[in-house]
Design goal:
By secondary structure, the chain is an alpha/beta fold. It is built from 13 helices and 16 strands. The strands form four sheets. The chain has a seven-stranded mixed β-sheet with strand order 4-12-11-10-7-5-6, with helices on both faces. It is globular. Pathway: Cofactor biosynthesis; biotin biosynthesis; 7,8-diaminononanoate from 8-amino-7-oxononanoate (SAM route): step 1/1.
Length: about 425
């Protein structure tokens, strides 16, 4: 069938993310993928290759069709592909849980597997509420977070996303009302004696003090707010939040779904601040992008409180939790990452992105250019024309997915220096061509 035929059938049937059926955004037909490149149907029976500068929404860190990850899946299929986790267990889940406890911050000792990053945040919020009930603090039913955040598209995570500038303002009134402090001042390198930082810290302390009897936990993306704007902030802000949680008896939930597994230059973004969470949410790169899998990890103190509290159990249980295929490929992906010089490679990617995107800051209509780890961002002075910008970058051999006022890249770690140069050149030339 021609590409037009497939796309027509797609338009009749499928609802793509954040899209309207009345005015659908263009989609491209993928014919294959290998390494860091997608093979897209060119509309005339052939294909065109493009570097996937998005790592398939930030998860495909080792690229496509990696032989080690392919083998992990095939080997597990020969045993069994799925089994319920209620009343049963299996080796891949046990081994993966051991590995995650080994590589995550030391206080985290217990693992709950779930289907997606959003669900891991749901579970984290649920366990925080159960924890406070177990401690006799039944009035603590709210989460404290900051403006500018994004934590997923299911209902509990939506409630801790930015309520005004986020993507879920249509649901105002239907969501649990949470407690929001101001967005941390921008800048990873902002010193902790900076007036803006001190003002923010004071504001957060005041909010925490005023509503401490209602707050169960603090929920934030450490160091880098992702879908809320690719917005980096100082590690000192995390230290403030850890101190507030300890002072008032809140739990600290860190959403490292986007930042984990080395994306910001350390294995976990919290390492930049030298603090540990009570609850950690991970996903995306956990399986190297092969299958949907996420996890919530918590401390022994949290787990014991919930287990000995009313109900005596964590009240959650996804059908596909701890799927053996996903656990097997996750183990292989983690081993593959840690066996290599991932920190060196992320630093090299960061240097390449910085060098390649720096000239873009001088272009008309560009508000800011910023790089943190393997994340490169061009922020325009107004909303990006997503269709035109995507087309312009793709004509130069690169796939990106701009949003709001941002043209950005979170490339696979296996990109070469030449790949990074191609990505940054394509973005620079497209921004010059399209603007905002």
């Amino acid at each position: 069938m021609s590409v037009g035929g497939w796309l027509e059938r797609d338009a009749q049937l499928l609802w793509h993310p954040y899209s309207s059926l009345a005015e659908p955004s263009p989609v491209r037909l993928v014919r294959g993928a290998s390494g860091v490149r997608l093979s897209l149907d060119d509309g005339s029976g052939g294909t065109v290759e493009a570097i996937d500068a998005m790592a398939s929404w930030w998860c495909m860190i080792h690229g496509y069709r990696h032989p080690v990850l392919d083998a992990a899946l095939k080997d597990q299929v020969d045993d069994f592909s799925h089994v319920m986790f209620g009343g049963l267990t299996h080796e891949p889940a046990i081994r993966l849980a051991e590995r995650l406890v080994e590589i995550t911050p030391a206080p985290l000792e217990h693992v709950f597997f779930c289907d997606s990053g959003s669900v891991s945040v749901e579970v984290a919020i649920k366990i925080a509420l159960q924890y406070q009930v177990a401690r006799g603090r039944v009035g603590r039913t709210k989460m404290l977070t900051v403006r500018g955040g994004y934590h997923g598209d299911t209902f509990a995570p939506m409630s801790v996303c930015d309520p005004v500038n986020g993507m879920h303002s249509l649901f105002t009134g239907a969501l649990q009302e949470q407690v929001f402090g101001p967005q941390p001042p921008a800048g990873f390198d902002r010193p902790d004696d900076d007036p803006e930082f001190l003002a923010w810290a004071a504001a957060m302390a005041a909010v925490a003090e005023q509503q401490s009897d209602q707050i169960a936990a603090i929920v934030v993306e450490p160091i880098l707010q992702g879908a809320g704007g690719m917005y980096p902030y100082s590690p000192a802000c995390l230290r403030v939040l850890r101190e507030l949680a300890d002072q008032h008896g809140f739990l600290l939930i860190l959403d490292e779904i986007a930042t984990g597994f080395g994306r910001t230059g350390t294995l976990w973004a919290s390492e930049h601040a030298g603090i540990d969470p009570d609850i950690l949410c991970i996903g995306k790169a956990l399986t190297g992008g092969y299958l949907s899998l996420a996890a919530m990890l918590c401390t022994a103190e949290v787990a014991q409180a919930v287990s000995n509290g009313p109900g005596g159990a964590l009240m959650h249980g996804p059908t596909f939790m701890a799927n053996p295929l996903a656990c097997s490929v996750a183990l292989a992906s983690i081993d593959l990452l840690l066996a290599g010089d991932w920190a060196v490679r992320v630093a090299e990617l960061s240097a390449g992105l910085s060098a390649g995107l720096a000239p873009v800051a001088e272009l008309p209509g560009v508000k800011d250019v910023r790089v943190l780890g393997a994340v490169g961002v061009v922020q325009l002075g107004g909303p990006v024309d997503m269709v035109r910008m995507t087309d312009a970058v793709l004509r130069r051999g690169v796939w990106v997915r701009p949003f709001r006022d941002l043209v950005y890249t979170m490339p696979p770690y296996v990109c070469t220096d030449d790949d990074i140069a191609t990505i940054t050149t394509a973005i620079a030339e497209a921004v010059r061509e399209v603007g905002c």
